[in-house]
Design a protein that fits this description.
One of its GO terms (molecular function) is 16S rRNA (guanine(966)-N(2))-methyltransferase activity. The protein is an alpha/beta fold. The protein has helices spanning 26-39, 56-63, 76-89, 101-107, 129-135; strands spanning 46-50, 68-73, 94-98, 112-117, 139-149, 161-167, 170-175. α5 links the parallel β4 (112-117) and β5.
C-alpha cells in the first residue's frame, strides 16, 4: 500500500497477508482523489474515514493536508496496523476509533468537511449508510461524502447524490448536503 501524493508521497506500508480488508486500488484511489479535488480542497479540512480497513484513505487524506482525520475501524488487527502506520509517519493528526461504525454514526456529535466510507461490499446495511450520514447531520454544509460500493448499487435517486464514478469493479458515489 502506498501514499500517492502530498506530504508523505511515496511512503509504502506492507499489509499483513492475514488481513481481510482490501485497500482501494492505487488506480481507483488516484482517480477518485482527482475527482475529489474538483469538489473540495482538502487542505486544513476535518475528515472522517469510515470502515478504515488498512488506513490507506486516512493516510492519503493526511498526506494531502487534512488537519485531522477520524478513522473508524472495528477489527482489532486492522486498527493496530493503522496505529502503527500513523506512528511511522510521526503524525498525531489521526484519531483512531476502534469500534462499530453504526454505533459511531449514532453517537457522533461532530461535523466533517469530508467523509469517505468504504464498507465491505457484502455488508447487509451498506445501502443505508449515505442516508444515516445525512440523518445524523455529520457533513458540513459545503462538505463532500465519497461512498465506495459494488456495481450492484445505484444511489442516483438519493436527494444528496451528485456524481458517480467507476474504475473497474470499484464504484464511487458522491453526495453533497
Amino acid at each position: 500500500m502506498r501514499i500517492i501524493t502530498g506530504l508523505y508521497k511515496g511512503r509504502h506500508f506492507e499489509i499483513p497477508r492475514s488481513f481481510k480488508a482490501r485497500p482501494t486500488t492505487d488506480f481507483a484511489k488516484e482517480n477518485i482523489f482527482n475527482v475529489i479535488n474538483g469538489y473540495v480542497d482538502l487542505e486544513g479540512m476535518t475528515a472522517l474515514d469510515l470502515f478504515s480497513g488498512t488506513g490507506s484513505i486516512s493516510l492519503e487524506l493526511l498526506s494531502r493536508g487534512c488537519s485531522s482525520v477520524v478513522s473508524v475501524e472495528a477489527d482489532r488487527d486492522h486498527a493496530r496496523f493503522i496505529s502503527q502506520c500513523m506512528k511511522k509517519l510521526g503524525t498525531d493528526a489521526n484519531i483512531l476509533i476502534r469500534g462499530d461504525v453504526f454505533r459511531f454514526l449514532k453517537s457522533c456529535h461532530q461535523q466533517f468537511d469530508f467523509i469517505f466510507a468504504d464498507p465491505p461490499y457484502a455488508l447487509e446495511q451498506l445501502p443505508t449508510i449515505p442516508g444515516l450520514i445525512f440523518e445524523y447531520n455529520l457533513l458540513k454544509d459545503d462538505g463532500l461524502l465519497v461512498f465506495e460500493h459494488g456495481k450492484q448499487y445505484d444511489f442516483s435517486d438519493n436527494p444528496h447524490f451528485c456524481d458517480h464514478r467507476s474504475y473497474g469493479s470499484v464504484n464511487f458515489s458522491l453526495f453533497r448536503p
